[in-house]
Amino acid sequence: MHIPDGFVSLPVSLGGAAVAATAVTMAARRAAIIVSEKVSTLPAVVAAYLLVGQLLVVPVGFGTSAHLIGTGLATVLVGPAVAVVCVATVVLLQALVFADGGITAIGLNVVDDGLVPALVAASAVRVLWPLLGRRTERFALVAGVGAGLAALAGGLAAALVLVIGGTDVVSRATIVSTLGGAHVVVAGIEAALTAAIVATVLRLRPDLVAMARPPVAPVDPVELVDRRGATR
Amino acid sequence: MSAAHGGQSAVGRLESPLTRLAPEVKLVALVTFLLAVAVTPPHRPWAFAVPAAVVVVVAVVALVPLRTLAGRLVFEIPVLALAATYALAGKGPRVDVVAGMTLSRPGVVVAGAVLAKATIGVVAVSVVAASTTATEMVRGLARLRVPSWFGDLVALSARQVEVLRAEAMRVRLAAELRGGTGRIATWRAVARGLGTLFVRGASRAERLATSVEVRGGIGSAPLVTAPTGASAVPPATTGQWLSALVPASLATVTLLVGLIA
Description:
The complex is a heterodimer. Chain A is mainly α.
């Protein structure tokens, strides 16, 4: 859920903007977007893809509907650094062009919908996949679990932001349970959809799934010396 | 973005004083105005009447069609749900509204305030979005010293949304031709379609990167060309900057009066 204008106090909004700006710049540096601009076509396409995919609206109950964010999916497909930059682009475009999400809350929305879910999804995949033996056929399942946890974490982060910076008229338990409850449903749907989408992509173009690639093994300098003792 | 590629065309919209305003001025005015509204305390309901009036006046001046505004207000539905939570579950003295149902009085005050702020925000953003093309918006951001790599990313993304949407319709059509309309609604089909869409999008990104390299790298020519000539919007003048401060000043004055009175 994108936090609209007026729900959060000004200091928290500005703090969120500062955190978001720092995080996005660090992520862009890590993803080599700033350094070598030739790789910026993929983040743009992934951001556009998230925007198109978010047009899928899911009825959540209580008369409200939520739309999928897709940060977990993006993290699994292009890595957490690129995913953070993509979601920042998506949040900005949604706030400026579609009026979805407040302008003063842009930084907070980048943190809640981008930074937190990306980190959670990446950590979950990095922990769970080796437990399953790094088998490719198991990756879609791990991706789904990671995306579900990421969506839930994002919702809880939003609840935390509303508790810290919002009004104290409602008890904390109410906010956390309302937002958390709504996001449990969203998390379930995101998990299922992410698993299915990742399975499709793995079948068509497995090289496009960044987190499923085998890690580049560090070269052991000792191995560069062959039997006769000469360096290769 | 040119109209031929399906981008938002500057030709179709109504010309108003707002479309001739430089985009960076509109962005600064929007952000300062919303910041002032966000700081307005909730205890004085009339303090929201002034910013609301400002927004309505600007919307009228900008000749924004009512249908556009109404469409954007749909995004407010989750806001209503949260405001209702504040009103229903708030602490403090309760007020009897309808037989048996009570609302928390401070909860209602806060709910009204957040609804007012959110609605003012939505309408203000819609007015700016309706009078500014995406390309102008990116140039405005660039003139406001947003880093160029981010501005280029936003511009390219906005352009690719149209491309991907067309691609999504093609994928959906292909699925329909293969399986009949009944099959489309299942989640598996949706997921498969989205997976295919990602693969096509990523392939397109690779082709784009290659074409950029062939053309000489990203420094030689921008991926999204800005309009030049008659449709270009020149940089802002001092008069435009002064007019940009008017909405924010009105909102700030109201806020101060609300705090003092």
